[in-house]
Amino acid sequence: MAQLIPTAAAMENFGAQLAYACDLRTIFHLCGDLGVGKTTLVRGFLRALGHKGIVKSPTYTLVEPYQIDGQMIYHFDYYRLGDPEELEYLGIRDYLEENSICLIEWPEKGEPLTPAADVQIHITHHAEARLIEMQGHSTIGQAILERTML
Ligand code: ADP
Ligand code: MG
Fold it and tell me: What GO biological process terms does the UniProt entry carry, in alphabetical order (predicted)?
């Protein structure tokens, strides 16, 4: 599935669609260059679920947890991960044992310890617009893709 996203607001809307289509336990990989709109997508996702506060990039903290109506959502950014082994200390496995949603920016920097994606999203620059390409890698992922298709 591929979709052209003309503005930052449209990227937030796309994140919101994913949130509505999402399952209780879903792992999203968000791939693409710096400034391509990964965090903007996550902001739309969290706001759609009812998060009122700011959504800051977890570039330095590696992870930012959110609890919305009892549902845990973890926003990761592995950009500054020095060594994938650091993920062991983050207790990622514990996050996955719960019913939690994980959105992971720069998942490739955590390999081979990055949890496998249900949905993989690639974003590329097309001048001001962005191209989103999305793949489902599990039953949950396929269902989310079908629900997000326009
Ligand atoms: P990343 O997390 O991928 O590094 P951010 O979401 O932090 O990127 O930043 C993307 C920047 O690009 C924001 O300042 C956003 O307003 C801007 N932007 C401009 N056009 C778009 C678009 N079509 N989609 C997403 N972001 C856009
Ligand atoms: Mg970011």
Answer: tRNA threonylcarbamoyladenosine modification
